[in-house]
TrEMBL record:
<protein>
    <submittedName>
        <fullName>Metallophosphoesterase</fullName>
    </submittedName>
</protein>
<dbReference type="InterPro" id="IPR004843">
    <property type="entry name" value="Calcineurin-like_PHP"/>
</dbReference>
<dbReference type="Pfam" id="PF00149">
    <property type="entry name" value="Metallophos"/>
</dbReference>
<keyword id="KW-0479">Metal-binding</keyword>
<feature type="region of interest" description="Disordered">
    <location>
        <begin position="127"/>
        <end position="154"/>
    </location>
</feature>
<feature type="transmembrane region" description="Helical">
    <location>
        <begin position="38"/>
        <end position="59"/>
    </location>
</feature>
<dbReference type="InterPro" id="IPR051158">
    <property type="entry name" value="Metallophosphoesterase_sf"/>
</dbReference>
<feature type="compositionally biased region" description="Low complexity">
    <location>
        <begin position="134"/>
        <end position="150"/>
    </location>
</feature>
<feature type="domain" description="Calcineurin-like phosphoesterase">
    <location>
        <begin position="214"/>
        <end position="377"/>
    </location>
</feature>
<keyword id="KW-0378">Hydrolase</keyword>
<keyword id="KW-1133">Transmembrane helix</keyword>
<keyword id="KW-0472">Membrane</keyword>
<feature type="transmembrane region" description="Helical">
    <location>
        <begin position="71"/>
        <end position="94"/>
    </location>
</feature>
<dbReference type="InterPro" id="IPR029052">
    <property type="entry name" value="Metallo-depent_PP-like"/>
</dbReference>
<keyword id="KW-0812">Transmembrane</keyword>
Amino acid sequence: MVFFLLFALSVVVALHYYLWRKLVRATTRPGTRGRRLGSVAVIGAAVLLLGTFFGTRFLPHSVDRVLAWPGYLWMAVMFYLVVFLIVAEVPTLVARRWLARQARTAPMPAAVAASGGLPATAGSGVATAEPGFTTAEPGSTTEPGPTTESDLVTAEDRAVLESRRLFLARGVAITAGLVAGGVTASGVGTALGPPQLKRVQIPLARLPRAADGLRVALVSDIHLGPLRGIGHTRRIVDMINGLDADIVAIVGDLVDGSVAELGPAAGPLRELRARHGSYFVTGNHEYFSGYEEWITEVSSLGVAPLRNERVQLPNGVYLAGVNDVVGEAYGDAPDFDAAMADRDPTRPVVLLAHQPVQAYEAAKRGADLQLSGHTHGGQIWPFTYIVKATGQPVVSGLGTVDGMPVYVTNGAGFWGPPVRVGAPPDISLVELRSIQ
């Protein structure tokens, strides 16, 4: 935990220092009121983000809700500011060099040329001596010579170059702000809007004809917490009940908080309807939120937890579930052998597991299909590529792991910033098809 806190602090400080250099230092002159106000604003933003990041873990739910909205929104804006400014580094550098070259190659003013003077190199701060003036020896105390037209031209060129540099920096900063604000605003609308309904058909070789067309309503990453409450749950339950599914599968990350704080928000889950029942497996966030209490709470709502175990459905299909991999640190590790052993090998197994990476173990033990969440589809582009780099074999939609199909839902909620860019929330209706 200490290492994590130090790492988070270092990252936040580094990112805000970068933003200060690009948005404040580069766009203002030293000692100006604008620079002072900009510096205070950046420091305040960093403190807000740190307060949100740690406050939502350690402060009461009623308090962290106040921090969460401005803090997490700033996190999203900050991210896109950094992304835009990094992308703009090269073209900005090219533009600055072009401006400097233009200043150096500017034609000599006629008055200076007529007097035989040579203008100083712009930005050098050193004027070229006119004929008749000698350069003082090192250590001499000669009186400074008269101000020449060449000196005046040099100061003017330097002022023009500085003005152009400020204009360029301010243009980049304004553009970055508009892009980051616009993308974030669009992402907020997507994240807070209703989940999309995705329909997918998956053929399974061992699926009996009696089970052909079995429909699984799959939802994950609801993330009840400081930013989403009972209204979010009701909307999800209404959508699922409208699908007339055979099974409802909630594959983890239901909550970000304790039962005492969020129990009422989860209440509408008792209204879920499915022919063969509703089932739940833990995600990593359940372990951060008191998983034992949540297992009891979910059970009381009529949703059956599958904890390294399986059930046999009336149509000859096994539905299995394993704990999340984070459970190992809490003495509640996933146990694929317990979930898959001593079964009829002629019958298919549909496995519920929060993280797609668990598919490697599932495939070794002969599972026919894994249904997962966890990735949020990346949630905020370009995090899709970062999630993939962390070792998750499938980020969104249908893929395969060692020949076994794996379907990953984007999830119905969000974590952290109430923003989704390029990965809209969804509830998936998975229809199993027999090829016998």
